[in-house]
């Protein structure tokens, strides 16, 4: 479509008056497949931009919403090569379309390589059309998809998470006198790094338990499953230290660590991947880099 045609489509969309209060069905094709969890993630980002009237497309189900957002993330040889999307009304008339490729400035700015980055680009292009707030900011709106993701993430109730704050405050106050048992595959090296950093009294290696955490597309689910497993282990096997730290590295793509007090209560549950500044600053390539990230994150918590 030429520039003039695109402008006409955009103006048509504005004339129809769609905005964040519109009801929208989200239909996403990801690398040639319909993956419900990925479609729900796109709906979540729209929700975080301020939309509440969202549905996920179901095969054969009639459209019940004002609009339908149809998107496709095209991949070749495991690399994303194109993003296509359109917004149509109940009659199936397009009120907005977009297309992005690696030659586009916003594609290059985001550095599109993975599904979330595809979604970020698409959401940014939809912001002026649906009059969305910043979907990725600290004040992002929370609704039914956020609740769904929270349930699937294995997050404990807010009461349990809130109880971690005073425990962390106690650990921070005790800083120079804290002793720590370190449970990890590289426990010797990690304990040595933590001890050498000097922000606690001592760190001693311990044998890591087998926690049997099932693989899951949702990284938070894996994190909290590990946290529950480690909490149960420490309750049955109290450490000869004030606190116990368990660290696991998902290759060099993510770093998780959990700190419990001697009684097995959670103090810190933390994960890092390439969306986090501390992870980006170290850009782990080896287990030693992952260990450096754990030390950096732990020191940040205890400062």
Features:
single chain, 303 residues, alpha/beta, Rossmann fold, 2 domains, five-stranded mixed sheet, 11 helices, 24% strand, elongated, disordered N terminus
Outline the secondary-structure elements.
Layout: H1 3-16, E1 24-30, H2 36-48, E2 54-56, E3 67-76, E4 79-89, E5 94-100, H3 105-110, H4 115-130, H5 144-153, H6 158-162, H7 164-173, E6 179-183, H8 187-197, E7 202-206, H9 219-236, E8 243-250, E9 254-261, E10 266-273, H10 277-282, H11 287-302
Parallel strand pairs: 1-2, 1-3, 6-7, 6-8
Antiparallel strand pairs: 3-4, 4-5, 8-9, 9-10
Helix pairs in contact: 2-4, 2-5, 8-11
Report on the architecture of this protein.
The protein is α/β, with parallel strands linked by helices. It is 41% helix and 24% strand. The protein has helices at residues 3-16, 36-48, 105-110, 115-130, 144-153, 158-162, 164-173, 187-197, 219-236, 277-282, 287-302; strands at 24-30, 54-56, 67-76, 79-89, 94-100, 179-183, 202-206, 243-250, 254-261, 266-273. The strands form two sheets. It has a five-stranded mixed sheet with strand order 2-1-3-4-5. Strands 7-6-8-9-10 form a five-stranded mixed sheet, sandwiched between helices. It is elongated. Residues 1-16 have low confidence and may be disordered.
């Amino acid at each position: 479509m030429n520039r003039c045609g695109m402008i006409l489509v955009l103006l048509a969309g504005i004339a129809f008056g769609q905005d964040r209060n519109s009801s929208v069905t989200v239909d996403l094709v990801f690398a040639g497949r319909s993956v419900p969890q990925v479609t729900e993630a796109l709906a979540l980002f729209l929700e975080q931009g301020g939309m509440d009237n969202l549905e996920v497309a179901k095969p054969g189900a009639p459209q019940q919403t004002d609009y339908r957002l149809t998107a496709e993330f095209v991949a070749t040889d495991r690399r994303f090569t194109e993003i296509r999307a359109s917004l149509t009304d109940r009659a199936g008339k397009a009120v907005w379309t977009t297309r992005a490729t690696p030659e586009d400035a916003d594609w290059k700015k985001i550095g599109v390589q993975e599904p979330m980055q595809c979604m970020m680009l698409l959401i940014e292009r939809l912001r002026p059309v649906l009059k969305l707030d910043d979907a990725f900011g600290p004040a992002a709106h929370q609704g039914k998809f956020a609740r769904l993701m929270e349930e699937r993430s294995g997050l404990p109730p807010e009461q349990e998470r809130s109880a971690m704050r005073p425990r962390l405050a106690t650990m921070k106050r005790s800083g120079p006198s804290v002793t720590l048992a370190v449970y990890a595959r590289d426990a010797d090296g990690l304990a040595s790094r933590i001890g050498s950093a000097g922000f606690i009294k001592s760190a001693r290696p311990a044998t890591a338990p087998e926690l049997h955490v099932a693989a899951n597309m949702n990284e938070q689910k894996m994190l909290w499953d590990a946290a529950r497993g480690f909490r149960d282990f420490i309750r049955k096997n109290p450490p000869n230290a004030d606190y116990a730290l368990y660290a696991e590295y998902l290759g060099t793509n993510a770093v998780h660590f959990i700190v419990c007090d001697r009684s097995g209560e959670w103090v810190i549950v933390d994960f890092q991947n390439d969306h986090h500044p501390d992870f980006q600053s170290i850009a782990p390539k080896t287990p030693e880099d992952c260990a450096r990230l754990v030390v950096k994150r732990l020191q940040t918590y205890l400062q």
